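Running this now, will post back.
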Amino acid sequence: MSVPRTTPRRALAAVAALPLLALALTACGYGSEAKQDDVKAADAPTGGKKLSTDTVKIGYFPNLTHATALVGIQEGIIAKELGSTAVKPSTFNAGPSEIEALNAGSIDIGFIGPSPAINGFTKSKGKSLRIIGGSASGGVKLVVNPKKIKTLDDIKGKKIATPQLGNTQDVAFLNWISEKGWKVDASSGKGDVSVVRTDNKVTPDAYRSGSIDGAWVPEPTASKLVAQGAKEILDESTLWPDKKFVITNIIVSQKFLTEHPDVVEAVLRGTVATNAWINANPDKAKASANTALKELSGKALPAEILDPAWKSVQFTDDPLAATLDAEAEHAVKAGLLEQPDLTGIYDLKPLNKILEAAGKPEVADAGLGVK
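Update: finished.
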């Protein structure tokens, strides 16, 4: 994995994505179904400071890598910071539908992966969203059939699943293949490795049937496959400096940020408090996240899947901006994205104000912040 760049890309030839990107570089890697599920609005606390709007609409995925939202809403930590402003949550199964909801004003703030954030920003020519904070790092594994694959070199010639063409994990796997010196056509997935785009919800069945030999996937899909007999052969975090890379960001519509900066700051105070509580109480937080998942999906994760999946995700306020910049470069190298100018995708001033007040170090935007 190439070392992430730490300088911005400016005055580049094109901002728009390639045609296939409209379909491709938009999902977070947790499913490709463009579906939005409304969740019952949380009751606002009685009393409390009056902010500039009565309700804030927050979108996220029913997935462990979105545990900042799951736990923050489940435990009332975010609501506490909002005072008399109520939280209206919505859950999504894929990045495209969440970006569409943000653009339409159906949500104000969202938790989302790097690929759809990049795509949403570039397709709108930098006018739709800002990344205002981090949420999670890691949680992505390459797991394989141990009867067919013993070493990483054995991946050549095999059928490996990724969640969706051009999604975050797909781009990472294509980049890894390239750095191995192997050739794969990004669009078709054909080449020295067969990259099979498979919805995470059906990947376990595909593995069980033998139609794939492994998968480069996020949690908890990776742990589901391991529970079926697959073996973890690579943790993506080992490919990154300090073993950290962004898997979930916090984004906001630029309109909402401009009109309701006090609400944005309150939500960020809540996410910072939530991440601190998660990291201080990992077992309680894991149980809280699983309770939220059960309420949203009707089914909790069993311990054999929940425990290893939870351990592989790190919760952080840092958006790890340099790694998002590198992920964009990987998509360009794979031919899935024209060279973008991401300057202005971040506005970390509200977050850094909160971190400074809490005596915590500021986080960097890798030169891609608003000027």
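The radius of gyration is 20 Å. More later if anyone needs it.
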